[in-house]
Fold this protein.
Amino acid sequence: DSNTRWSSEFSDGQWIYVDLGSVKTISGVTLNWEGAYASAYQIQVSNDANNWTTVKSETNSDGGIDDHLVSASGRYVRILSVTRATGYGISLWDFEVY
């Protein structure tokens, strides 16, 4: 729902994950950042929400919309902020998993 957004606390290392309900094949992730974005982050997958595997590392995001092709499987997909671009937290309008 692009009329709402998620935002984190004002520190690095914040994360959000989605539960796909069961293990799925994942081919892409699209992030629609609000003005407070992560300049560096990881896309991770897990089958149990405890043990995470990084499938994509972004080290130079400029915000806006980030489209990533990935080849993975998992029940959970997480965005882990490594470095914030602003003094605020990170904030997403949309977090799409394909």
In short: The CA atoms of residues 41 and 97 lie 16 Å apart. DSSP finds no helices and six strands in the chain.
